[in-house]
Structures are given as C-alpha cells and as structure tokens.
Batch of 3 targets.
Target 1
Amino acid sequence: MAVGTIVWLGSEVMFFAGLFAIYFTLRSTSPALWASETQHLNVPYALVNTLVLVSSSFTCQFGVFAAERLQARSTGWKPSQWGMVEWFTLTYGLGAIFVAGQATEYATLVSEHITLNSTAYGSAFYLTTGFHALHVTGGLIAFLLVIGRAFAVKTFGHKEATSAVVVSYYWHFVDVVWIGLFLVIYVLK
Amino acid sequence: MRANAILFWVLTVFFAFSAALYMVWSLIYYGKIEWVGSVGLMLSTVLGAFLAFYLGRSHASQGGELPEDRLDGNIDDGDPELGHFSPWSWWPVMLGAGAALVMLGIAVGFWICFIGIAFTIICLVGWTYEYYRGYFAR
C-alpha cells in the first residue's frame, strides 16, 4: 500500500511539474508583467502561512510515530503522551489555517484586480496555488477519514496505522510542493 | 542484500565510465562537451552510489539475508505483507459515477456539480468505511 501511494505521488509530481512549467513559460514570455504584478504580493504574510504548513508536517509525523506504536488516543495531557488522533487533529487545524489564509490572500489580490482571467500572471498564480490548495483540502478530508477510522475500531491495528502512514506521505508531498511554490512565486518573484 | 549492494556498485562504475566516455567522445566529435547527457549520466552515477551505499549500510547494521540471497530460498519466502484489499465492492463504481456527475456539471450546467459533490462525498465515506461497519465492524 505504501509502494502504491509512492507511485501515485510520482504521478502527482509530474502534474505539478506541468504547472511549474506553465508558470516559468509565462514568466519568460512577459517579464515586464511579472515586475509590476508581483509587487502586490504580501511576502511576510505568505511566509507566516508557509511556516504554518511546514509545522503541520512535523505534527503529522508525530501522529505517524503514535500510529506506529499503535496508540490511537492520548494517555495524558503532555504531547509526549498524545496519540494519533490528537496529533492529526492538530495537523488538521494547522492545514485549515493555511487554506483559510490562502482564501484571505486570494480575496486581497482580487480586490487589487489580480484575477484568474485578468493577465497571464493572474492565470499562472491562481492555477499553481489553486491546484495546491485543492490538494491541501483533499489532504484535510483524508485526515478526517483516518481519524474517523481510529474511532470506528475497538483496537487500533496495523491496517489503521498503514492508512495513517500513507496519508502522512501525501501530506509531506503537498508540503514540499508548497515550499517549491513559495520559493518560486514569493522569493524569486 | 550483499548481492544487491554489489549490483548497484557495478552500475555506479558503469555510469561513471559512460559519463567519462560520453564527455570525451562529444569533445572529439563536436569540439565541446554536451552538457545535458553528461549531467544526466553523472547524476545516474551519484544515484547508483547512493543506493549501493544505503544497501551496504542496511546490510551492515541488520546483517539480514534476503530470501533471494539464499540458494534454498522459495518464491513465497519473499512474499511481503501487502495489506488489505477488498475482494469486490460496488463503492468504486459509485465513486466513478459521482466524479462523472461533477465533470458533467462543469460541462453542462453547474447546478449538477452540487448533486455530484454530495453524491461523491457519500461514496467516499462509504468506500473508506466499507470494512468498518455492519458484518465487518470490529
């Protein structure tokens, strides 16, 4: 199951490679547009949002460690005693903050007249970050399903742990893609 | 596992030799180094070395022999735990129908998407929890 997930993530890499190619091609054909439009980006805001998403990868990994010792629920209030459910709930919260932050950023940019059909820059920006945000949202749904499975069983076994592990693979993948997008869109401009 | 590590070291040497040959050959033939193929071959060398080193380290720390290293090994000795696979299920068919409804909605009229999304969510939850309810509840 882990191998199948990795193969599928390989195809996802190809998908995002296509989106990056769209971005770079449009950027190379209209550098003047990029120079004017990237001034609207709020880099410190995006940096905070990025840090939220990166930290969610760490909380997700702690959830995996809990799942690997087949511990679904916490045995105490300390984070070292947390189970998979507590860690994944925290990860869900951080991921939800990221998506909400993205939505707020979109609203701000639209109010500054950068939309999907305004210019080539708008198309490239919303296509790349939009597809990424859709993937994050899919990951959030996957977290809910995995947490639900932990509640559905009396004893948390290897099957449930495996589904937690493969969802974490996906989450780390989405996180790494965002780091790439952040560097390309907000740092390189 | 020792055989696997050696195989990757052989590949590393092969790619290193190919990279050197390719660069010298292109230098003689075109008068300059062709960088795309050269970099590709050099990276293949590094990749082979990575895998060989990793397998060698794993073998040194575990010391475990794989079934394929043993002369008396059988096919099913190397049969890994594949996980749980459903023998049959209607849910993937329903899930496909849900996705088709969403696509139809995008093409024909967006109101169909709302029905499609609701239907897809029901199918997704039904599929994920098929072996967690009813007879299979545990």
Target 2
Amino acid sequence: MLSRVLRVVAPSLAIVLISLVGLLCGTYVQYVICIALIAGITGASLVLLVGLGRVIMLATGAMGAIGAYTSTLFIEHFRFPYLLAIGVGGLFGAFGGFLLAIPAGRFRGHNLAMVTLVFQAIAVIGIRELPGTGGSEGMRVRPVQMFGHQFNADYEYLLLIGACTALLAFIISALQQGRFGNTLKAIAVTEIGSEAFGINIGLYRIVTFAITSGCLAAAGGLLAPRIRILDPETFGILASVNALAYPIVGGMTSVWGGLIGGGLLSILPEVLRPLAEYKALIFAVLVILVIGFFPGGILEMLARIVSIARRKPDLQPLPKFNSRTILVDSSTTQSLSGVSAPRHGPALEISDVSVSFGSLRAVDHVTLGVESGAIHGLIGPNGAGKTSLFNVISGFLPPDEGQVRFFGESHIPGAARTYVARGITRTFQHVAIYGPLSCLENVAIGLGHNDIIQSIRSSFVDPFRDPGGIRDRQSAAEALALVGLDGRRHTTASTLSLGDQRRLEIARAIVSRPRLLLLDEPMSGISLDEEQKLLALLQDLNARLGLTMFLIEHNIRFVLDICNRLSVMSAGQIIADGAPKDVIAQPGVRRIYFGERESALQ
Amino acid sequence: MIYLTEFLQVVIGGVKIGAIYSLAAIGLVVIHKATKTVNFAHGAFIMLGAYAGYFGLKFLPYSLVYLLVPIAIGLIAGGIESGVLRSLRRADHFSVVISTVFLGIAIVELVRVVYESEMLSVSPVLVGRPWIIADVVLSRETIWIGLGALTASAIAVYVFMRLAIGRGMRAMASNPRGAQLCGYSVDWIYGIAWFFGGALAGLAGLFAAPPMGVSPELALATLVPAFVAAVIGGFDSLIGALLGGIILGIVETLSAAYISSAMKGAVTFMLLFAMLLFRPEGLFPEVKRRSA
C-alpha cells in the first residue's frame, strides 16, 4: 500500500529534492536545473504518447509554442495571474492535441506521425504570420508576477518551476503506473485483443494525445519567462525531434526514463559548450545508437547493472497443474459462479448471415443456433468461412446480410468493445495476450472496466485508497487460480509457454463472468498433455458456471470429447448440424472433411 | 478574360510545383509499399539530391547530372537501409520509423554544419524567352520542371506496376515470409526499394532546386507535401501519389494566390486532415482488405 503510493510520488519527490539541492548552488547552475526540469517533464509527457501509445510525436515544439505564446498573451492582454495563464496554455495545448488525434480513431502509427509533422510545420508558419506573436522577430516575455511579487532571482524561478514540474510529474507518473498506462500498453501489443475486452482504442489515443499535449504546453508556458524572448525557431521542428530523443535515450516505458533522458540531454549542451552547434547532430546519432544497441535506454542499462550486482532469486516452482484439485476448492469458484447463465433459450442465434469479399462469398446465408449451457463446436475444411463467421459473431466484421442475436436480445450487435459488458468474451487463434503486462494485469483488463474516465480516475485513486481496485485484483487472482496460474500472478505474460498463455487467455475471458465464451481454435499449437488439461478446464467451467461455449477447432478428437453439439461448415454454408457422433458419421461430412471417397464408405 | 488568364497562369504554376511533389511522393510510396516503413528521411534525400545537383553542375553537363545524381542518392538510401535499418528491423517496426526521423535530421544537420545555412541557387536547364500561348506565359523552366517531373513520375509508376520488381515488392509488403518462401530475398527487395525510392528523391531534388532553392530547409519543405500527396492518393497507390502531388500543388498555389501566402500551409493541413477524416483510404484506394 505504502510502497504503491511511494512509487507514484517518487518522481515528484526527486524533482523537489533536486530543486532544494539547487538552492545551494550558484545562479547559473540554478538556471540550468530549471531548463533540465522542464526538459525532463517534456520527456516524461512524451513517455505516455510515444512510449506507451506508440505514436511518433513530432509536434512537441508546436505544443510548447501553444503553451508559451498563449500563457504570455493571456498575461499580457488579460492580466491573468501566472499560474492560471499556465493552466490556460495547457488547456489550449490539450485542445490542439485533441484536434490532432481526431483521425486517430481510424488510424495508427505512421499516419498520426505525419499529421503531427505537418501540424508542426504549420505552427511555425502560423507564429511567423499571425498578428500579435511578434513574428520572426520574437516576443518579449515579462518576468513572472505572483501575489504582487516580481520574480527576478534564479532561485525564485527554481522554486516555482520545481513545484510546477513536481505536480506535472505526479500526474504523469500516476497515469503511467496506473490502469491508464496498463491499458495503453495493452493496446500497443494487440489492438484486436484490446477491442474485444471493451477498450475504446480511438478514444484512448485521443485522450493520450490531449494529456501529453496539455503537459507539453504547460512545460512550454513554464519555459517562457526563462528564455525571455519567444521566437518560432525555439519551437521549430528541431525542438520537436530533440524532444523525441528524450524518452528514447532515457527509456520509453517509464516516467523515470523521460525525466532522466530530458534532464541529461538538456544539460549536455551546457556542459559541452563548444559542441552546442552540433547538438541536433549529436542527438540524432545518440538516438540511433541507443535504438540499435540499448533499446531500453539509460533506464534499462541501469536496471541491468543493478540486476547483475544483485542476482534475483529464481521463480517459485509452479505447483503441478491439476484442474480437479483446484476446482474442487470451492472458495475460489464461489465468487465466479455468482452469476449463472439462464438455463433455457438460445445463447446465440445466427440468422441468414452472409459475408462477401469482392466476388468471393465467404459466408453464404448461414443460420445457426447455440443453446444456453451447450458446448457447441464448428468444424470445416480450410477456407470454409469459419473464421469469417467467427469474426462476424465477435463483432469484428459487419455482416453484409443477416443478423446475430445474443440471448434473445432484439437489437443488432454493436462494436466488438461492447461485448464484455454484455457477457460475451473470446479467445484468439493466435493468442492475443498483453505480453509486457503481468498475468494479474492481463486478467484485470479482462474485467472490462476499461472505460476511459474510470481508468484515469483509478490511476489516481488506486494507489491511495480504493476498495474497487482491490476487489478487481481479487477477482483476477481467483480467475488465475481457476486456470492453474496462481503461482504466476506477477510473471510477465510474454514469458509463459504457449499452453500457459492459452490458459491466461481463458482466465482473462472468464474473469468478467461471461455468459457466452467464444473460442477460436483453442487447441492450436498445444501439446497432447496440455490438451487434456485444457479439456478438463473447459468442461469444468461449463459444468460449474453454466458457461455456454462456441468454438472453432480442427482437432476432431478434442471436439468429439468436449462438444455436445457440432456443426460443419463448407464453402460458406452449414452442411451438417447435430450430435457430434451423428454428424461425424454423415457421408457428406466424411467426404468433405476427411477426404473419404464414396466408394470407401460402401 | 484577364481573370481566366491569371487563373490559368496560377494553375500552371501549381502543376509545376505539384509535379515535384508527385515525384517526391512516389519515392515515399515505393519505399512504403515494399517495406511498410514510412521514410521520414525522404526530405533529407531530396535535399541531398538538390545539393548534389548544385555541385555536379559545376563540373558536369546537365544530362550527366540528371543521370548520376539519382543513382548516387539511390545508393546512399540503399546503403542506409542495409547498413543501419536492416539491423534495427529485428527489434520492431516502430524503432525503424523513429530511426528514419533521426537519420533524416542527422543528414540535414551534417549538411548544415558543412555549408552553414546560406541558400544556394541553381539555374534552370532550359533558358531563353518564355512561350506565350493565349496570353499565358510559359517559361522554359516551368516546362522543363513540369513536364520533366511528370514524365519521370509516369515512368516510375509504370515500372513499378508492370515489371517483376514491382511484383516482388508488393509480395514482400503483403506477406514477407510468404514472399521469402517464393524465392524473394527480403534484404534484396528492401535494398532495391530503398535504392529506387532514394533515386526518385534525388531526381525530385534536382527538379526542386531551381524553383525552391538549395538549403537544409528544403528537406522539410518537400517532406511535408510529399506526405500529404501520398495520403491524398491512399499511401499505397503510385498513381494516387502522382495525382495527389498535382492536386496538392494546384490547391496550394491557388490558396497562396487568392487567399494569402500564410494560408498555404493551413490549407495543406486542412486537406490532410479532411482526407484522413473523411476518406482515409485515399482517392485511389487499393483493394478492400479481408482480415479483421
């Protein structure tokens, strides 16, 4: 508890400490510390967008300009108090980021990077041409006035900037370490896997853009009185690219990386005065070297040195997995079996669904029902249209014709991200877990509490006091126990074996207590030994929680063992449907699926 | 009548600039098509082409400069791909794109350190009295740049759409492993794509030098419109990039002439924004994708 609080506020404490130490130094050092703190906050802001959001941000200079010019103009023309003017500058920046990111809903990486570059180029032209900005000549910034006191000395600015950057560092740190940051990491790893668990990817990207831009603008506002004259050159493309170097050199995935990278890189030209002219060149070479040889930046280098110095104890040996013994322990299943599925009626009705790609009709007027409580399998040769049908059911592909209804709901299904809330979850043929997150965090995202306001709120509240967060962690731990991964709560998901990753996916899919579980080839790439364990697990979930399952699978032995109903698809159509043994015995199925000739059957 | 003449004059100026944008955009698209990498160093390649043209013309005739400079820039681009980016590609795609940003900056800054920031000027290939057709003045420079860049663009598009090398690149982009199994070498295809992309950038630099001047600023001044042109075209369509460049050139010049020169940039941005928002697949989209 205390340690979580400490982790969140540590960057701010470090900033306060550095500012206080700076008070003992000379005025030039105090000035340099001010610049370094602002650069550090710039780097830390970029961690959210670049490191976690995986967007190449090339409009850092433009955002800084928005903050600097807006705050200065508001002080000049409307006599705004200093701190309020910084806040207004931050808001303007956030709005700029919001505008930039509007196409983000449909777009990824490189297009957004281009939009930021074009925005940066336009911003500089705008400053030059717009009236009231002083154009290329520059605009004078008055010394800060607060409570009737005029700031002149460097130590006064150091205290002011130290306090403001500490506050910003707290905001960024809480977001990065909290659920908001985890969700961003999840999106970066697998967009489809995130969408399926209720994450509105476009909205997250827009908000990340706005938050980062707001912080960048606030940093620009803080910088303004220190550089005294604002001109477009200060906030040009070079400023943006140099700032992009901060989180990369420092370490992209942690607020510390941004702070350290920004701090060090801004001090570097001060220390190496004669080389100041080559600053951009040196930064560029440095970044390429870091990307090539030390991908985690300074932070990872430090971590490596520490871990060599102090060997970590080996992982606890995992208790041998045995679904019977774990599931018999009723204390773990109790809370998960709280909601039981309705016993009667169809869980899923597919009526007259068709999907075409050009002239290819992948799914051809398919009608199919899955009864509540059933384990319903779908088999068919490659290219039969199973995956297309599955994508329609799971909301990733809108059908050209027909409709899909769940639990008798009359409305047409919406986007994939609404599914968790409606009690429908899925697993993926190619596992789509969140590699960099721990197993526990993976499962917590499966709870579907991924509404953006909620995740931002809990990022700030969780470290201090939040029963909701604890409850979520408990449910996640229970789901992990259920699939036999109890000992791996804090293991990074990407280090698990494929079988364990599939179990993790199932834990993530059942933690929200769904009524219908969609499984896309759950057995692919699984060993015989693992197969038996997964079979037992799924059967148990079905029996104990009344969880309805619909699965695509090629492994006939598994399908016959687990399903109580089976459909066969071929060339876009359902050609057989019924009890598994009967379906498999049909000559048509044997011919199409097993390649038997008519003569062989006679 | 005088308005119409003036309008035509402006449009022709737009086509001239647009043809340079087209050439720049096609190089960008060639690299992106084959390697799925957006090359943020493309502007730097164009700038290098312009500088190479400036110095080349001091010793060589035009014909040789126009032949050798694209090859030289292509070799530099191919060298960067195989020397720097290839080893990074193992890490992840994001790092590669970031690296192109910093490679571009490194090249531009290197040039800036060597030649300060003074603007060098290159005289046009064709000199002499302009032609006047129905009151519309066509300078020889305009004809050379407009027609020359457009012809080069058209040839490039044809080569990549029809010839085997283009097929290899498309195969590589859609499924690198599958293409490898069919006997295409990743290293080879990527190297060639960067060579051609770089060569087109070098050529764009040669055409851009007379009207836009030779300076480190040329990098950003060409990179931004090349992106916008490529986005208008759909980013993976070569013909789209060609037409996108022309459209952007005309729109920019018209807004500079009839609104204000400050509005030029804003119009570029609005065009990009509107394209991404309302027609993200571009004006000339590739085929609908199947995977969800």
Target 3
Amino acid sequence: MKQGWKYVISLAVLIGLVWFGVTAFDKSLTPYVSFADARRDGGYVQVNGKLADQNITTDGNRGTVVFHLRDSKGEVMEVLYHGVKPANFEMATNIVALGSYKDGRFDSDKLLVKCPSKYQAEANKGTS
Amino acid sequence: MNLGAAGVWVAFSAAIASGLLYLAVGAGATRLRPWADRVFRLQALLLLGLVAWLWHLLVTHQFQYSYVAAYTSRALDTRYLFAALWGGQQGTFLLWATWGSLLGCLFATSKNRLVPTAMFFLNWTQVFLLLILVIEGPFKLSKIVPADGAGLNPLLQDYWMTIHPPVLFLGFASLVIPYALSLSTLVHRDPGSWLQITPRWSLFSTVVLATGFTMGGIWAYKVLGWGGFWGWDPVENASFVPWLMNAALFHGLLVQRATGSLARTNLFLGVLPFLFVLYGSFLTRSGILADFSVHSFVDLGLNGYLLAFLGFFLVMGFGVWAFRVRHFSGLGSEISLLSREFGLWLGMLTFLLMGLLTMLGTSAPLVSRLFGPPASVNVSYYGLINGILGFLLTLLVGVAPLVRWRSDRAERVARTLAPPAAIAFLLMTVAILGGIRSFGRLALLGGAAFALSSNLWITLRALRRGPSFAAGYVSHLGVAVFLIGVICLGQFGREIPVELPLGQPKSVFGFQFIYRGLETPPDGRTRAVIAVQGEGRAFRAIPPIYYSEFNRGMMREPHVERFWDRDLYISPVEVVSSDRQTPGLTLDEGQSGIVGTARVTFLRIGMQRTDTEVRATADVQVEREGKSEVVRPAVVVGAGGRTELAATLADGGTVSLSEIQADRRRVTLAVRTADMPQAPEALAVHISTKPMINLVWIGVSITLLGSLLAIRRRTGRAPGDVAPAS
C-alpha cells in the first residue's frame, strides 16, 4: 500500500471533523443582545440585567420562576425561567438569561447568576 | 515592615538567579549545577515560608491585610481559614508558584541529562508567577483595618471544595515539566532521554488533573443543587483541555517508545498542555468572560502580565520547536493502516480535536467579537462535539489494544474483534428494548460496551503477566464504565418540580414525601425537613435552605439519598409562604368572578405616566355577605422597580394586582378575603432520580487506579519497560 493513501484518508477525516466542529460552533452561537433586540428578534439569545425588584414568583408545581430584569438601558423585561432557582439568586449582581422572547415575556431555560464575590465564587449555575 | 511582601521579593530574586544559573549549567558550566539547585531550593523554601506566613495571618485574623479581610472572618471555622489561602485569586498564584517550586525540586533530583536545561525553562514559570505576586500578592496592607472580615462564601464551605483547588493547581503546575522537557530535548537533540523521563511526568499530570476535576464534580453535584457534576463552564474546560492534550502526548509517547516514530509530533504535543493551562488561566482570570460565565472574575489589572506570561511561553515553545525540529526524524518508516500505532495516532488526533473544539467553544466570546457582537456557545455544543468525538474514541479504544504493533493481519484482527463487537450489539439490542431510541446515545453506548469488553479481555490476559501490565487497559475500562453511567443518567434520569404542602403527603417516583417544616441547627443554616418513605427505606431529607449574610441571598443545597442503583436528588427551591398561594383571578374589564364567598368585579383600568414611573390601577368591586365596596390596588413601575400596592378590604382581606395586560384591558387579581383559610406553608422542591450515577464514580475511580498502576510501571524497575506486543 502506498504511504500517500494514509495521508489522504487521515486528512479527509480530519477536515471532515473540523468542518463539522466549526459548523456546530457556528450554529450554537448564542448572541448577546439588548432587551429591545430580544423582543424584536424572537430567536434564542442571551440577555443580561439586574433584578428590577424583589417581586419573584415561584411556581413549585410547574417548576418555574418569574422575575423582572432591568438592562443597562433601564428597560425592564419579565422573565419566565423553567428550572430550579439557582442558589444566590436574590443577591446576584447580574443575571444572564438564555432563551427567547415569547408571549410577552422572555422564556428562559438557563440562567447564569453572578455574585459580588471574587474568583472563588465558582459556579452558581442553574440549568434546567 | 511587611514580611510577606519582602519575602516575595526575595523569592523573585532567587527565581531570577536560579534561572541564570541553570542557563549556565545547560550551556556547559556543569560545576555550577549544585549552586543552581541550591538557589532553586531556597526559592522553594521561601515560598513554603510565605504559605506558612499567610496561613498564620489568616488564622490570627490579621485584617490589616486586605486579602485576609476579603476572604475570612472571625466566625469562620479553622479549616476554612486554611482553605482561604486558595479562596482568592492572589492566593492561588502563591499556591501555583509553591507547587511549581516543589515539583521543580523533585524533578531536579532526576539523573536524566535533560534536567538542567529543562529546569531553566521550568524556572520561567516561577519568574512569572513571582512577578505577579510582587505586583498583586496576598500580602497587601490596607489603610483601614476592618473589625471583621467579609468571610468565605458558604457555597465554598464544603469538604470537597476545600481540597480540590490545591489538587487542580498541582496538576496545572506539573504540566510545565513536559513543556520544559520538550524544549530541553529539542536543544540537546536527545530523544532517548526524553522517552526515558517524560512518560511518568505526563502520567502524573493525568492522574492529578483528573483527580482534581473529579473532586470539583463531586462538589458541584453535592452542593450546587442543579443536579449535574459537569457543566462545561470555562473554569472546568480550562482544566479539561490541558488534560486532553496531555492524554494525546502520553499516547504519542507509547507509539514513540514502541516504534521510534512520532518524535516531532510528541515534542510539539509536549509544549501544548502547558500553553493551554496558561491560555485557560488567562481566559478565566482576566474578566474577559465575565458576561458569559457564572464566575464573576474580577479583573485585578493583571491582564497585561497574564498575556505576557502566555505570549512568552507560546513564542518560546513554538520557536524552539520550529528551529530545532529538523534534527528529529519525521514519521519514519511506513505506517501500516492495520497497526496499533495507527490506531493510537488517530486517538491522539481525536484528543487534540476534542481539546481544540472545546477551547474554541470556551473562547467564543473572544472569537465572535472578531466578526460581530460577542456571543457564547450553547452548552449543547460541547455535548455534541465531545459526544461524537467520544464515540470515535470508544471505537479506537476498543480496537487499538487488540491490534499488533507495526502491522497485523486483517483476518486475525477481525477474529479478535468479533466477540467484543458481538457483546456491543447485544447490549445495544437490550438498550433498544429498554427504551433507548436516541441514535446518538445508542451509538455511544455500543461504542462504550465494545471498548469495555475488548479491554476487559485484554486486561485479563495482561494480568497474567502482572498488574502493572494491565495499567492502560484498566484505565480504558474505567472510561467505558463512566460513559455507560453518563448515558444511563441522560436516558433514565427524571426530574419533577413539586410543591410539598406542610404535613401533607405527596407521592413522587414511588416515594412518599411529607414536608415537616424548617429547623435551624446551631450553625444557623436552616434546613427543610422532609420525611421520605419508599423502597423499604424511611429517612429524613434535610436540604439546607437559608439566608446567607455573606451573599445577601438564599442558599440552597440538595439532599442526596444514595441507593445502590441510583440517587434520589432533592433540591429545595423555595419555602412558599401562604399569601403567595392565593389563586389568581384573570378578568377583562367589566367581567366578574368568584373567589371563595366573594364576588369580584373588575370595573376599569387606570394608567398614569410620569417621567419617572408608570402607575397602573384597577378599580375592583368586592361583594360579600351583602356588603359591597370598591377598592383600587395598584402597580407602580419605576426606577425603583415594580411595586405592588395591595388594597385592604374592610374586613381585613386584601386585593392585589399581580398582572396587567393594558392593551387587552385585562388584569390578574390576587384576592384574599378574611374568612379564607390561610393556605399552609409549602416547600417547592425539584425531585430527580439519578440512575446508575454510581457507574460514573466507579468508572472515574477505575481510570485513576489504572493511571496509578501505569505510573508505578514507569517509575519502578518493573520488567515492563518496553510495551509488550500482543
């Protein structure tokens, strides 16, 4: 068997896998947008804001949490989150919600809760 | 005088001096070697002294040091006072530098001729880390001395959390050794010495890093309450990717040892893991990912230094490789497609690709900025990428160990592979009957079963020659068991959110849950008490759910009840007080509804806008027991947030406005009349089952055991120094 074949095969497999990886990467990019853009877009995005108030409603039987976020422009948006309220939720300096705008509110399946502590405040994550 | 800061300066000077001395030794001045070692050991001693000094400051509450004030308090348990050494960023640099110096001392005792030059390269990490400590160390004094410190985040006050960072940092620090050996080999053109010393250090890093992130996973599972042990978070990826690169290196070394090929590749792979450690540190510590990670990294103003650190090692590593690599043989003789080395080579490529694509995902906020607005990747990306590449790995892990080095006969390979393949297909059939329909899961399960049976067979065969001969295969077994566990979790794991009213039994997953109320132990961490019964077991689940002064928020931790075949995972969400449970009544303007004994009519909506706020009101008529009254609850939305202003009824009941749809002139009211029984308090929980989670832990333990056996084989004088051809 000629040596060249093996290079061709390896290279083809490698290119295929890299192409696949980069496509998957491109597809799963979740852009960071403002509340206004989230409303207009309707696609899967992430938004970032502070808790607008302590008016947080938990529905234990449906497993949802409803709260209000305010972004840096002062706009307030209601968020419906499906999942366990993450630890540290109420004291978060910043909440990142991933989801899409649906029926008048932001329908979120993942929250990133960030805390005012430093490096050691690892991983207060909430994934539904 | 600030003893700590002075000590850092002295250690920094020692690092510079030992670097110069090792350079001289590497260049031929061998008589300076004892001096170089001595100065390096002095640096290690100084760093140990600094660790001891910082511990002293932490334990004795020297709050004039801002580090002590920021991460501890008087009330903190002693063991966490010690753990606070790596509680903050500055402390972790000290930890890293200390591990680096101790590993260097150990490494320097080796008789290998590559060591002096390698020590010169290794010493550069010490220089950079100590420079960072000089600039932003934990020994900074603050002008104001607080009476008490801020304390340590309660989430971090856990056994596993306390011990896993030192292990991870030991792993990070150790990866500089393959890096340094790679460069030293390139300088001295000595592949023989490289093969003799590198495998054991590469294995050491493998074991330590894997132990570190396993401990981190246990902590996440036990404490964080989101139900998983791995979340593809930047910090996790920053430890996983160097591990993958190092795994590629180790498998490359096996090939090089057996066949003499891959010298160039391996020298390149030796450089990579440490570069990824540095890149990962930069990503996670610089604050660049702050908007995309759950970690709130504070930018200490070190970005320039961290970048210089990374850039220096990048240029030095790739530079030396590029200049010297021509002195090493390339792929060498023809590689047969049907040989063990070809399988290993494909495996290495897969490891590399896994690492690169995982790092690409982690770097998404940086990469996407080049093309448009910053974006991060969905976590599903990591699952997809690593799932598919992981499937390829299971096939390679199943095939490669059964194929002979150099070349093999197709017919013999097919005969050897038939039994494991049959077992894999049998298991996949069982899985289909058992309800697994997802193609991806079936494929991964089949691959894992194939890898498991083929490696089990070869392990048993190798064991006849002694335990250390089975080392690699045992590690593969563990990985296969781990994957099967992960698939079971994904397939059969269930989660149900449920509200448990006080004292009333509820049935979930065949268990009966009764919420008994809250109790507060002396440490102040209130917990919910749930009596659980089922499967012939009765137990009290006591998941903590309490307000933390440090975090100014609620803390929640799960209760994990372990069974042999699964875990029952009870995550508290919230104690729902009675008024929250008032049923909502949604009405259009003019419509009426009944709440208890009252007839409620929504008369009209009112909106007032000012520059700063919007006030929405609803006129509501409430008729009960022949009496009628009109009240006006309101909601104010303004700079201070959204405030509900409930209206009080004559009998003491309340009406509040929980939702307004102004455009449809529709509102949702929460009405509670005085005669309505107060709904009892309830506990909202998420209950989930984690089937076969033990396979995950068992798999990881088997892999670690295998790697430890391999280290023994590489360091001891076992007769297995040459990999056996099967």
